[in-house]
Structures are given as C-alpha cells and as structure tokens.
Amino acid sequence: MLEAQPPVLTTALPERHSLSAHQAAEPRALHLRFSIYHLLLVTMLIVMKADATDAQIAHVCDVITELGLKPHTMPGATRTAIGITGNQGAVDATRFENLPGVGEAIRVSKPYKLISLDLRPEKTIVRVGDATIGGDELAIIAGPCAIESRAQAFAVAEAVRRSGARFFRGGAFKPRTSPYAFQGLGEEGLRILAAVRETYGLKIVTEALDEASVDLVERYGDMIQIGARNMQNFSLLRRVGRSSLPVLLKRGLSATLDEWLLAAEYIMSEGNYNVVLCERGVRTFAQHTRNTLDLASIPAVRRISHLPVVVDPSHGTGKNYMVIPLACAGVAVGADGLIVEVHDQPEKALSDGAQALTLEQYDQLIQEVRPIHEVVAPQPVG
Ligand code: PEP
Ligand code: MN
After folding, report:
1. Which one of the ligands is nearest to 353 CA?
2. At what angle do helices 211-220 and 187-200 cross, to 10 degrees?
3. What's the 190 CA to ligand 2 centre distance in angstroms?
4. What is the pTM of this model?
5. 164, 233, 267, 337: least CB-packed within 10 angstroms?
6. What are the average pLDDT values for consecutive 10-residue runs of the chain, which has 382 residues?
C-alpha cells in the first residue's frame, strides 16, 4: 500500500522546478494552487560579504524599505544576512546583486524564512538578562504550573535557585479547560513573580493569554510564554512579535512541525527574533500519557531552524513518574533546555498536581540531566 503523502501545500521542500510522478498524477487545479502558492512565497535573502560595512548593510535595508518591503538583519559569525518579508510577489535579484557589500541574493521558496538556517546558519542564543537559552548552558526553567500564593512560589523558587537553574516558571493567567477551574491569580500572581525575581535573581517565564495580559507580563516578567492553545492565535503572535521580551513558543496540541515553525515566523516577522520553541507533546490516541512527547521534533527542528528548542516533560507526559525519564531523554536528543513543573505540595496543587515534581524529585532530575548534557553538548574545539 502507498504511504499517505504529506499535503503538498504545507511541505517545506526546496524549490522544485519539475513535477514528480506523484504530482503529475494529481488534478491540474492542485498544480495551479501549488505554483501560485510558491510564487507568493518566493522572496529574497541577501547574504552580505564578510567584510561588508555597517553603512553598506544599512543601504541594502533602505533599498528593501523603498520597495515597500521589510528588512530583517541577522548578523552571523562570519557574515550578515538580510531576510526580506512583506512582499506578495517575486523580488528581482538583480535589484540587489550589484549593491556594494552584497555577496549573494538568494531566492527562497520555503514558507518560512526568518526561522530558517538559510538566513542564519549558526544557532541563535536567546539572552534573557545574563542567562541564555541555546548556548553552552542547559537552560532549566522550573516552577509551579500556577502561582497560588507567595509562600508556595517562594518555597519552590528557593529550591530552583539552589539547583543552579536560572529561570522560574509559574502561570498568573492559566488556560484551563473548564471555566470553573482555577484561572490563576492574575496581576497578583505577577507581583509574586516579580518578588521571586527580586529575592532569588531568577528570570521569570510566564504565560500571556491574550493581548491585554502581554502588557502586564511585559511589566513584571522576563520572558513571555505562549501556550499550546494559543500557538495559532495570530494577533497574539504578532503582539509578542512587537515586544522587547523573548518568547517561549509552545507547540500546539495538534500542530505539525510546519505550523509550529510558521507560528515562530509570525513572531519574528514583526521584528522579535528572540524566540525559543518548546516541545510539550501533542495529542494522539495514546492513553498512558496526557500527551505524546514528540522528541523526534528536536532533531527535526534542528535541521530547519536556528532557534533554540526546549522540552516540557511535564505536559508532555502528565504523570509525575514519567517526568524525570523523559527529561533525560529530551536532553539526550539535544534539547537546549527543559521546562518542568515543581510544587512544594503537589497533592494540594490547584492545577496540574499529577505531573508536578516534589522538591526532592526536582533535585533528582537536575542530578540526572546534567551529566547527560555534558555528554551530548558539543565539545569546545581545541
Ligand atoms: C503550562 O505551561 O502550564 C501550560 C498550560 O502549558 P501548555 O500550554 O503547554 O499546555
Ligand atoms: Mn501546567
């Protein structure tokens, strides 16, 4: 039997000029849509020469802007690349090829541009104050599902700080299936998070549910979490794309890799390039876990994107006893970090208690994942 083919309109293959036998057998209308789709998405990527000056880069950006398009400058280790977005038609390469400092003008026919390794061949390191995600350090983001009280947040934060982690998580706005379930403390929760930062020096990662809560998270937090349920809330993505805070973008409950990466593309297309992807599991027929943690997405992302990716073994399993093994597995497949739920009294948690680690279990997790990261992390050359 033939294996099902991925839908032609959502594949991210390099440009194809001839039709495969499979496509040739498909109705003509689909080819038409295929080519129109590609035409709309074909744009340009300008790769500057290694010795291009700032003035030459600025000039290329001016030319792009004059054409009514948007330049995205990505400085790299060896050269600067400039992505172009905003156009609905093909851009003429000759317009750029002869500008001073330009090395190459490359046609890009993939649906995503800014997230792509074409634009930035080296990994992005997202900086959150003096902490990083995507660099040499394994980023640990730990804390309760929801901020419930100052005492709870501080008890967990103390353990998180002691473990050497740099990030504290905790929701003040919770996306709950039932409108009658605990919805979070709102701004009061954010004030507690700000006090945690003040006391323990941890960077605060917290979810914004809508555009109004982005304003609040910007006031109190260090990194905006976009939850799985909001991964395709495009106005919210655009809003955080205009934020100066980095964004943790969780994979949607049923999102394909392309949909997830295009959600990141939305954020970046607005000018915020500090995006961290988070694999948190997707819904499948499996009943032994809350979600199926798709660890294959980590190498799959790596092949396409320069963005860092972290793993959430808490929502990815929904079960306390599975969190440590899946955290280890996530680090083993090359995740840049982990986001884990920890509670001082999981049995009393107001949300997600079943998957929360106790403080002791959290310490155990840290002890287990660190040596794995030592082994899998790229070794410094020389
Ligand atoms: C959370 O982090 O508590 C959460 C609600 O996550 P997700 O959006 O992945 O379900
Ligand atoms: Mn949760």
Report:
1. 2
2. 30
3. 16
4. 0.88
5. 164
6. 36 33 41 40 82 97 93 92 81 89 89 92 96 97 98 98 98 97 98 98 98 98 98 98 98 98 97 98 98 98 98 98 98 98 98 98 98 86 54
* Tokens, residue 225: 């979490």
How far, rounded to the nearest angstrom, does the alpha carbon of residue 169 sit from its chain's CA centroid?
16
| Closest to 168 (Cα-Cα) out of 183, 179, 153 | 153
Cα–Cα distances in Å, from 216 out to 15, 180, 208?
Answer: 43, 23, 8
Tallying the residues shown for the chain, one arrives at: 382
DSSP code string of 219-247: HH-SEEEE-GGGTT-HHHHHHHHT-SS-E
Closest C-alpha to ligand 1, atom 4: 227
Q: How many A from CA of 153 to the centre of ligand 1? A: 17
Pocket of ligand 1 (CB under 6 A): 145, 171, 175, 227-229, 250, 280, 315
Q: Please name the residue whose Cα sits nearest to atom 6 of ligand 1.
A: 227
Q: Tell which residue, 14, 10, 4, 12, has the closest CA to residue 30.
A: 10
CB atoms within 10 A of CB 349: 20
Where is 140: in which H helix or E strand?
strand 139-143
